């Protein structure tokens, strides 16, 4: 039987296409969509309550299934008793219905899914970091390598965190036990890889835990640079070198930064008889804040002691201290520096002798030996170079006694110089300055050469003035930001900083008769450096007899008066070329009389 052909409307798709794209059908679809949206908005509370009741019912069934069979009877009895009590209470069923609907609405609300784990971009960063560490943390023959190409990075990275911009903020990784974490070269290689892959331009801290075979990388915030010179809350013998990270020290000080007062973690250097690092050495590049640090130390030292300043650069950076009470002298020339340091050397000897005699007599040390004396030498190598050219003594030679015996005599030496001339520093300066500071841009090798240990942080992208590292003895290396203490006499100094420094300076003392304004004064008396140098080696502070010696506050001016006292018939013998101090095996200083050459040969 022959089939009858289908109607044309069923075989031809053109009419159907026209119907599908007709305007009436489009309006119908739009109306249906609007009606569905309106109905969804109207019935949304009911949908939410229904979803919540379904979840509560599923939770109740799960709780019933988890309940042991021997406890189902008491549980059913308890539920029935609750239902009976609710039924008997006035308005109980209505309140129960309202409570069930509220619980259903709360349980059926739409919850934003909690994002767990890193995003896709963060995952790619971690995977790239893992692959970069594979050549350095893997070894052939490892049956279960922690680091392998295409391996699981989640096994190696225990913790990780990203900031809002998607950059790595913290990372704790594990490394194999056979990795040589005790060698600095191996550590530096891993730190360089992490620094390159985690993103340059920020400072990172690397904390190695050799016991647990873990390395923690942390991004450090920039140290504050708005802290200016001010009175710090410290006890006598404590000097604030600067400020560091909060988790590096266990102490904070109230400071004023800008217009607010806050607590900041300081780097406190302790001096005195019980100090293990009685002297300080500062090295850095020109313009990195070494003079600023020395000026800050001088202002703090003037609170409880006397200060003697040697300005080897000769730029007048310490002119604001001239004529101030407690400032024994500010010398920038070779002749004045030699005379001043020679006096300081023999003043240290005098203090040792006076203190030793007082202890032998069973009494306390004299007051003039207990007041701290600070010797601040800025770029002494510049004067050493001039001394070699003029065939004169090296000024650093007179620092030997204060460096060796300064702790017992309450004498503190602070030396600052530049990297280019660091090899010109004398051996006593290098040996006795256990507190070290490095300022300005420096490589890890340079920091290690000065501080004795490499820094555990990466160098900053931009180094502000006064930024560097500090290490006190065998303590860890700390980041350091020196408080802003510019020269108030400099025209480039801002008004706020000028007022801050000026407020810390003692008031000017009246110059002695015949002294011109601007000349160095010491303790209110004029210091004639020319006479002190012309007097030669006989210019000494009297120390053989502690009772007849000059007062400590007369400073270097007493050195020039020693020969006159001898000619006038004074019984006190000056501690000059024929009198020296030597420490015996018991550690007590004793006087040795004789020629200088004999003493040098003997000791």
Automatic annotation (TrEMBL):
Record-level Gene Ontology MF annotations: ATP binding; DNA binding
Residues binding ATP, per UniProt: 284-291
Bilayer-spanning residue ranges: 75-106
Domain FtsK: 264-448
Domain of life: Bacteria
Name the UniProt record assigns to this protein: FtsK/SpoIIIE family protein
Residue ranges with Low complexity bias: 552-563
Chain intervals with Basic and acidic residues compositional bias: 581-591
Keyword field: ATP-binding, Membrane, Nucleotide-binding, Transmembrane, Transmembrane helix
Region (Disordered): 244-265, 505-525, 539-603
